[in-house]
Amino acid sequence: xxxxxxxxxxxxxxxxxxxxxxxxxxxxxxxxxxxxxxxxxxxxxxxxxxxxxxxxxxxxxxxxxxxxxxxxxxxxxxxxxxxxxxxxxxxxxxxxxxxxxxxxxxxxxxxxxxxxxxxxxxxxxxxxxxxxxxxxxxxxxxxxxxxxxxxxxxxxxxxxxxxxxxxxxxxxxxxxxxxxxxxxxxxxxxxxxxxxxxxxxxxxxxxxxxxxxxxxxxxxxxxxxxxxxxxxxxxxxxxxxxxxxxxxxxx
Amino acid sequence: xxxxxxxxxxxxxxxxxxxxxxxxxxxxxxxxxxxxxxxxxxxxxxxxxxxxxxxxxxxxxxxxxxxxxxxxxxxxxxxxxxxxxxxxxxxxxxxxxxxxxxxxxxxxxxxxxxxxxxxxxxxxxxxxxxxxxxxxxxxxxxxxxxxxxxxxxxxxxxxxxxxxxxxxxxxxxxxxxxxxxxxxxxxxxxxxxxxxxxxxxxxxxxxxxxxxxxxxxxxxxxxxxxxxxxxxxxxxxxxxxxxxxxxxxxxxxxxxxxxxxxxxxxxxxxxxxxxxxxxxxxxxxxxxxxxxxxxx
Lengths: 251, 296
Known about the structure:
The complex is a heterodimer of chains A (251) and B (296).
Chain A: E1 3-14, E2 17-28, E3 31-36, H1 43-49, E4 60-68, E5 71-72, H2 80-86, E6 87-90, H3 101-111, H4 117-130, H5 134-137, H6 150-163, E7 168-172, H7 180-193, E8 198-202, H8 206-212, E9 215-220, E10 223-229, H9 230-235, H10 240-246
Parallel strand pairs in A: 3-8, 3-9, 6-7, 7-8
Antiparallel strand pairs in A: 1-2, 1-4, 4-5, 9-10
Helix pairs in contact in A: 3-4, 3-6, 4-6
Chain B: H1 3-36, H2 42-46, H3 59-90, H4 95-108, H5 112-126, H6 133-157, H7 161-169, H8 174-202, H9 206-209, H10 242-252, H11 258-292
Helix pairs in contact in B: 1-11, 3-6, 3-8, 4-6, 5-6, 6-8, 7-8, 8-11, 10-11
């Protein structure tokens, strides 16, 4: 398996506070990869290193090496705009733009200079279908995305990411603010995406991790404790801390 | 006393205080309207004022007030939008930004008569603009700028950071995120602030007495060439506004119907400001609904 994303010795500091203490972690091309751990363990922080969203926070210092598709994303030559097009992100709270559904999904495409109306229409439709929300919104694409339910909004946000055809999709607890039905829809959808995208999902829902992910990595207080195939991690974890967390003894 | 009685007592005290405020305001507005509205007529609104005989109107003052307002907004809105965007989105958190913010606060509490005198010395005298609409508009900009800037900043700050992250995560540059995502979402708040500020500017007198002047030069409403001295659009003519008119009549008016003209002008002023305030609410709500609710 070749490693599409490889991170070596990643340290992250919020001012004096060391939030990531040297993470070595690799992800192969495609598949779903779960990051689990108790709150404050650094899994979201780590996820946000992969598309440089942490750059937005003042006083953050990151050291180490993060390569995606063979290029160092923290090199001064990196175009963060291009990087974030390549590495899409879905957030915990659905955050559609205050436009119509159509404009939300087509926005990234138009930004990258696509003008062909037919191509955009087609891409909007495919993305909404992939995100399992097409049937609910197809008659109302002109409607404001903010008028949709939370679950629908989240799927429109996923469609918005898919429309620009990234190679990696980062998901930061994408279902924790949603109802169970919407969560199920999103899980099913992720399973269809795993063939073509590298999905990295932060989740507090251990069942969710065990249901959908191919690999699981367990974080604790800024350290990566254990990583491996999801089946192995859940059935026979090698570290005591992993076992304790998975069996609910803390966290 | 038991907690229940104390609670009741506190609630009633607050109710009385709130009622007092409402009564004072209602009395004030009611009195101005009752005294002034009977004097408002089509003739009053459309004929020029008279200095020595009765029967004068306020057509020039009314036009001047609106024209001055438009000019002021044209100057102050772009500046405050830029400053507000900088403060909310780009300004680093350091002492320089704090000083900037503090200066804006100080500027907003500057007495308007001081702003007027400053405008008089700098623009009217030093820059030789004379008593003119443009000098008045610049003085009013100084008066309006701080509040409008804080308003824009607050409106932008109230947009959730999730939207900023959404924009960045989709590969939008920061500037584009601000222009295309943050500003549209903050628009209802910004518009409300502009209209409320317009109400303040419209009723301002002290800052204008020394800048736009106290005389309403004759305007020819058929001449719309802004470079002609008699044109309504000419910005270098002195221009008395409604508020200044009220002040002047009451301090040195010698027309026989001075009291009536003053009352009528006050009523017109109050009505326009009320319209501004109500439309600010209406516009704000409408824009908010447009961005959030169903419908195309």
